[in-house]
Write a structure and sequence with these properties.
This protein is elongated. It has a domain at about 5-175. Helix content is about 70%, strand content about 0%. With about 475 residues, it is mostly helical.
Length: about 475
C-alpha cells in the first residue's frame, strides 16, 4: 500500500471527503509549530492521496491488481512527488534504475512509459527529454493516424522544453505550481500557433505569478512588447536585466519599450534619445516617434525628418521626399494633435514652396515668439526647400547645442538638420558674433533684473522698519495704559 495511506490511516480510496476527514482528524496531532516535520509529512500524504484519487480509473485498477512493473510504479511515484518531479537528479536516478533492466524489459516498457508521460498534466519537459533520449522515443507509424499525430506533437513539445525552469516553483504550494506551469505552457503554445488570440488569452487569465526565471522574463518582455502591452513588473525586470548587461541592446530596447507603454513621459526622453543614437534600427525609430506622438506631437514631424536623414544614406536624396516620411506627416496632420504652428509647418512641406517664396511663408512671419521649436521649424523647412536657412534661427540652435542648453530631443533634431547644411567660414564667423551678442544680451538682462530687484528689496526693507517702529509704539502705549491703570 502507498505510504500516504499508511500516514492517513485509511485504505486506498477515491472518496475525496473520506480523505479529507482522515486528514482533519490527524491535523491536531501534527501542529506546524510544535512538529513541523510531522505536519509536512501529513500534508504531503494528504496531497498525494488527493492526486491518487483524481487519477484515471485505469491507474487505480493497475495499482489494485498489483501486477504493474516496478519501473512503471517508480515512474508514477516520481511524477507524483512534490519534491522530485522537477529535479533532473531524481530523473537521472530513475534512468539508472531503468538501466538495470534487461533489453527485452526496456523494449516492453519504452512506450508504456511514454503513454504515462503523455497522460500526466504537470511534468517537466526538460527532465522528460532525458528519458526520451535514453529510450529513443521517435515518431512511429501507427494504425490510428490520430494517435500517430498525437505522439509526434508530444515529442515535438518535449524537444522545445519547458517555458521556464520549473525548479523556480519549488517554494510554492503544489496547486499553485500546477496552475502556474499550465498557464505559461498554454500562453507559449498560443503565442507559437495562434498569435492572433494571444491578447485574448492575457485578458481571460486573472492574477498570476511571475516565477524568478530569466528565460521566462525574456519571453514575457517579447510577448508583451509585441502586443503593445505595458506592465510595471516588466519595467523592473528589464531594468535589472540592463543593470546586469549594460551593453545588451535587447535589454535597453525592452526597458525603453515597457516604460513607453506604461505611459512614462519626460523622464524617459534622455534614455530614449540615447538608445536611438547608440543602436540605429527601425525599432529605435518607432520608439522615438511613438514617444513624440504621445508627449510632444509638435516635435513629431521634425523627429520624422531626423529618422529619414539617418535612413536615407544616398547623398542625392532630398529631405522630405521619402514615402514613409510623407505618410507619417499626413498621419500626424490629420490626427488633430498639432498646434497651428505645427500644421503650418507640415502644410508648407507638403506643398513644397520654392526657396524664393520663403518670404511669404507663415513660419517666416514675426507673429510667433522666438522659441527653439520655431527655430527648428524654420531651419527644417528651409532644408526641405534646399535653401540655406536663415542664419539667426539656425545659429541659435547650434549655440544652444554647443552650450548644452538643448533638451535631448532638440539636440538630436539639430544634429540631424546640421548634417544636411554645409557651413562656410563666413557662417562660422557670423555664428560666433551671434553667440557673443546673445551672451551680452543675457548679461544685460541679468543686470537689469538685479537693478530692478534692488529697489524692491530696499522698499521692502523700509516697510519692515516702519512696521517695527509701529509695533514698538504700540508696546509703549500698552505699557503706559497699564501704568496709569494703577492710579
Amino acid at each position: 500500500m502507498n505510504i500516504c495511506w499508511e500516514i492517513l490511516g485509511i485504505e486506498p480510496t477515491t472518496d475525496l471527503e473520506c480523505i479529507r476527514q482522515a486528514y482533519l482528524a490527524l491535523l491536531p496531532s501534527f501542529h506546524p509549530e510544535s512538529d513541523p516535520q510531522g505536519f509536512k509529512r501529513l500534508r504531503q500524504a494528504y496531497e498525494e492521496a488527493q492526486h491518487w484519487a483524481a487519477s484515471p480509473a485505469e491507474d487505480a485498477k493497475t495499482e489494485e491488481v498489483g501486477d504493474e512493473h516496478e519501473i512503471l510504479v517508480a515512474f508514477r511515484e516520481l511524477l507524483a512527488s512534490e519534491r522530485d518531479r522537477f529535479q533532473p537528479s531524481a530523473w537521472q536516478k530513475f534512468i539508472q534504475q531503468l538501466n538495470q533492466c534487461s533489453m527485452d524489459e526496456i523494449d516492453k516498457l519504452r512506450w508504456q512509459l511514454c503513454d504515462i508521460a503523455m497522460k500526466t498534466e504537470t511534468i517537466s519537459l526538460s527532465c522528460l527529454a532525458l528519458l526520451a533520449q535514453r529510450l529513443n522515443w521517435q515518431p512511429q507509424e501507427a494504425d490510428d493516424d490520430a494517435e500517430g499525430e498525437e505522439l509526434e506533437a508530444f515529442l515535438e513539445t518535449v524537444k522545445r522544453g519547458d517555458a521556464f525552469d520549473l525548479l523556480s516553483l519549488a517554494k510554492l504550494p503544489l496547486v499553485v505550481q500546477d496552475q502556474t506551469d499550465a498557464y505559461f505552457f498554454k500562453l507559449e503554445r498560443i503565442w507559437r500557433f495562434y498569435p492572433e488570440h494571444f491578447a485574448d488569452a492575457l485578458q481571460v487569465q486573472g492574477a498570476w505569478i511571475i516565477p524568478d526565471d530569466k528565460q521566462l522574463h525574456r519571453k514575457l518582455l517579447h510577448w508583451f512588447s509585441a502586443e503593445q502591452w505595458g506592465m510595471a513588473e516588466l519595467v523592473d525586470i528589464a531594468r535589472r536585466w540592463q543593470a546586469a548587461e549594460p551593453d545588451n541592446e535587447d535589454a535597453h530596447y525592452y526597458l525603453c519599450k515597457q516604460r513607453l507603454l506604461c505611459g512614462e513621459g519626460e523622464s524617459l526622453l534622455a534614455d530614449l534619445c540615447d538608445f536611438w543614437q547608440r543602436y540605429p534600427s527601425t525599432q529605435a525609430d518607432d520608439l522615438l516617434l511613438g514617444w513624440c506622438r504621445q508627449h510632444r506631437p509638435d516635435f513629431f514631424p521634425l523627429a520624422v525628418m531626423a529618422v529619414e536623414a539617418r535612413c536615407m544614406v544616398d547623398a542625392e536624396y532630398v529631405p522630405g521626399e521619402s514615402a514613409r516620411t510623407r505618410l507619417l506627416w499626413a498621419d500626424i496632420l490629420h490626427s488633430g494633435r498639432l498646434s497651428p504652428l505645427g500644421r503650418s509647418f507640415v502644410d508648407s512641406l507638403f506643398y513644397k514652396r520654392k526657396a524664393m517664396a520663403w518670404a511669404n511663408s507663415r513660419l517666416s512671419t514675426q507673429g510667433e515668439p522666438e522659441t527653439p521649436l520655431l527655430d527648428l521649424y524654420r531651419t527644417a523647412e528651409q532644408v526641405v526647400l534646399e535653401a540655406f536657412p536663415k542664419e539667426k534661427p539656425f545659429f541659435r540652435l547650434l549655440i544652444r547645442l554647443e552650450e548644452g542648453q538643448a533638451c535631448p530631443l532638440e539636440a538630436l533634431i539639430t544634429q540631424a538638420l546640421s548634417s544636411k547644411i554645409a557651413m562656410k567660414p563666413g557662417d562660422i564667423r557670423d555664428k560666433k558674433e551671434l553667440a557673443e551678442e546673445l551672451r551680452l544680451a543675457a548679461e544685460k538682462k541679468l543686470s537689469s533684473e538685479a537693478k530692478t530687484e534692488a529697489p524692491r528689496q530696499a522698499e521692502s526693507g523700509g516697510v519692515m522698519k516702519i512696521m517695527k517702529i509701529v509695533g514698538l509704539i504700540a508696546l509703549i502705549v500698552c505699557a503706559l495704559n497699564r501704568f496709569f491703570h494703577f492710579f
